[in-house]
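Give me C-alpha cells for this 303-residue protein.
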Amino acid sequence: MSNSRPNRPSSRSNRPVSKNTRARDVARRSSGDSHAAEDAVDDAPDTTDAVTGAPEPTGPPAAIDTHGLAKAYGDAPALWPLDLRIEPGDRVSLIGHNGSGKTTLMRMLVGMLEPSEGSASIAGHPIGSIETRAAVSYLADQPVFYDDLTVWEHLEYVARLHGTADWEQQAVDLVDMVGLMDRVDDLPMTFSRGLKQKAAMTMAFVRPFDVMLIDEPFVGLDRLGRTALLELLQLAHGDGATLVVATHELSSVRESSRLIALSNGQLVFDGDPADADLAALTEGARPDSPIDTDPDDTGPADD
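Here you go.
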C-alpha cells in the first residue's frame, strides 16, 4: 500500500468511474444465394432460455435478470419467487417496509447470499461469477471495513483491485466531495455511523462498474453527505450505469425512472413512481392488484 498523502482536489468535476460495456455491434449479412441463407439460419445461435425454453430477448443482455429467484430460511420465506428484468441504464428505486425482502434480494444479486431456488444474472453473467463481481459495485446498509486499513488504504486497495485508472486523483476528489479530506489517514472502523457511510461511498464510486446496488444509503448521512451521494448517483446514471437503490428516503424516489416495491417478500408494485402510493407501499399495505402475490401467503421475510 502507498503511504503518500493525497493532494488537493482537482478543479475538474468529479465523475464516478463507469464502464461502457453495454454497446454492441450488430452485423447484417445479405446474400442472393438461397442455400447460403438457409445455412445462415441453421447456424444461428439458439436464443431460447436454457431453463424455461422461452425465447430470450435479442440485443444487449439485461443489467439484472431474475427467474424465480427466491430465498427461504427453513419454512419461513424471505423472498418469494421473483421474475424481474432491469435494462441497462435504468434508475430504479426499491422500497418496502422493514422485513419486505429488499436486503435479501440485494445480497443474493451480489453473491453474498445463496438463493434457495431460481437463478439470476447481471450483464449476462451468473450472480457470484467473477464477471458479475467486476460489473457490480455494492454499497451495503452496514459497511464493512478492514480493521487495520485507513480510508486512503481502503481506497487504494479497492481501486487497484478493479484497475481504476488515475485512481489517486479520483480518490482525492471523492473524499473531498464527502468531507473526509482530514480523515483519510484514520481507520474507518473507528468512525461514527455517518462517517462510515461516507467512507463506504467513496469506495463504491472509486472503481469501475456497470451496475450499482445500494442498500439504504441515506441512513446516518448529514446534508453534505446526502447532497454528495445524490450528485454521484446523477453523474453515474448520466454515464450509463444502472442504479438500484433500496431506500426509505421517499423524497429521492421521484428521481428514479422505475419503482419496485416488495411486501412480505413479494413483488407488489413495478412501474412509474408517479403512479405509486408510496406511503402505503412502505407501510406494508397491499395494493388492490398485487403483482405475482397470493393474499394468503404472508410468511415472514428478512429485510
